Every structure is written in structure tokens, then in C-alpha cells.
Amino acid sequence: MMALMSFSSKVFSPDSANHVREREEGHASSSSPGIRNPMDDKSMISKRQTQLQLHIDSLLLCRKCPKVQSHPVSCGPVLSRVMLVGQAPGVKEPVLGRPFAWTAGKAMFAWFEQEVGVTETEFRRTVYMAAVCRCFPGKNAQGGDRVPSGHEVASCGEWLRAEIAILQPGLVLAVGKLAISQFLDEVPVLTQLVGRIVRVRKFGRNFDLIALPHPSGASPWPRIEPGKNLTKTALALVRNHPAWMARV
Ligand code: SF4
User: Fold this and answer.
1) Strand partners, 172
2) Fewer CB atoms inside 10 A, N or C side of the chain?
3) Distance 168 CA to ligand 1 centre (A)
4) 226 cis-preceded (ω within 30 degrees of 0)
5) 116 near 160, Cβ under 8 Å?
6) Dihedrals phi, psi of 108, to nearest 5 degrees
7) Does domain 14-245 have CATH number 3.40.470.10?
8) Cβ neighbours around 218 below 10 Å, total
9) How far is the centre of ligand 1, averaged over its atoms, from the C-alpha of 28 (Å)?
């Protein structure tokens, strides 16, 4: 049984935010998690695969942000009904040529292997991995990874918009607060969000969102209670989600 989240509008109201988005965007389409639609016939899948490849070819050439310290990192043309959205690559990912290729990835793929039963290889083959910012932002004054600027997030958000249009995800996994904040106008504390499913509307499409804490190790939240158990609950929701089960 999935736990579909509903919030008091005073505390947090994804629905009202979504209506605003819908009005702003002026068009509406829907996607029911896990339910195949006419877009899934063979010729349409082939068309979307081509669109996705062209999209990635363009993404890899993007040089819009002068302050970032790498070229864009992409997971490749994985046509999936499940998208994962992280924050930004670290210093290693551009060198290794794939997202979540280093410490945070090791922790995250261990979660998925233990709680969802999918190996890193299988995850990479079946889940489209995006990010709020596709290039390594560089280091901050304290030596940690710089949080992408609002301008960089907005610029890179256009790539995310295009991916949601092409992939039409039934489920989006948002990893860490910056990624979560791309989908919710108000981000509640993680204890109120992780371990639940939120129905959201973004870029003209409806889909389910499951939030995960960032696995980087910078925060102990996923390793101590209640975060540890809530993270397990969130991963169980992923495992049983219809879009996850029919992701490719
Ligand atoms: S961060 Fe995004 S928008 Fe900016 S240069 Fe990299 S891919 Fe392009």
C-alpha cells in the first residue's frame, strides 16, 4: 500500500503550488504512475529514444554557465518512467563520465541494492539520472562543493524541463534538499517528507515524487534515527511503486 501524502495547506501545499504552475504554463497533461499510455507503442518509443539521444547530444555541448568547473555529466539515453534528480556532479563525475560515480553514489547505490534489490549496474541501465545542475560547480570557501547559484539552477532547469517532456515519468526520485526544492514550493523538514509519496505537477506533467536524503555523508541524517528508518521506508515505496516496476 503506497502512502500518498497530503499536507495541510498552511504547513505545505503542493497542490496549490501546482495549480499556480499549471496556470503559468497554460497547458496540461497527465501521467498516471505505472500505467502505459498510447505514447508507449513501438514507434512512439523509438521516436522518444531518438529525441532523448538528441537532447543528450545538445546537453553535452552546453556551456551556458561561466562559473562551473566542468563540462556537463549525463547518464546517457536511458528511456525510463523513473527519473532520479540529484544536486550536481562532484569533481570526480566529469572525469569518470557518469553521475553519482564517487562517494555519494557508493552510499546511494548501496541503499538501492539493500532495500530495493537492484544493483548499481541495473539501476544505471533502467533509471534516467538527472541533476539540478549538470556541471561541477566548483568548491566553496570552506572546501566543500559549491551549491549551484540561482542562475545556474534556472539555466539547467531547462534541460530538466525537456527531459520531463520526453520521458513523461511516473515517478521522480529527488535526492537532497536542492533537488526536492525544484518540485515543491515549500520544502518541509525531511522528517515530514521522506517516507511518503507526493503527487506533484511540474513542467505541465503530473507524477509521483519520492524524496530521499542526500547520501553524500556531509549530513548524518540518513544514518541516525528517525532518518535511517524513514529512508528505508522511502526505498520500500520506490520498490513497490507501479512506475518503478514498469520503468523500462
Ligand atoms: S550547469 Fe547546466 S546550464 Fe550550466 S553549463 Fe552546465 S549543463 Fe549548461
Assistant:
1) 83, 209
2) N
3) 22
4) yes
5) no
6) -65, -45
7) yes
8) 12
9) 27
Beta bridge partners of 205: 202
Answer whether 70's CB lies under 8 Å from 94's CB.
Answer: yes
What letter represents residue 9's amino acid?
S
Residue 199's Cα: distance from chain center in Å? 14
Q: Side-chain half-sphere of 88: how many Cα atoms within 13 Å?
A: 23
Find cell 511518503 and name the residue.
196
Is pTM, for the whole model, over 0.70? yes
CA of 117 to the centre of ligand 1 (A): 33
The residues, ordered by sequence, that sit 6+ positions from 16 with a Cβ below 8 Å of its Cβ are 9
Cα of 27 from ligand 1 centre, angstroms: 26
Cα separation, 70 vs 134, whole angstroms: 9
Are 240 and 2 a contacting pair, CB within 8 Å?
yes
Ligand 1 atom closest to the CA of 62, numbered from 1: 8
Residue closest by Cα to atom 8 of ligand 1: 62
CB atoms within 10 A of CB 227: 18
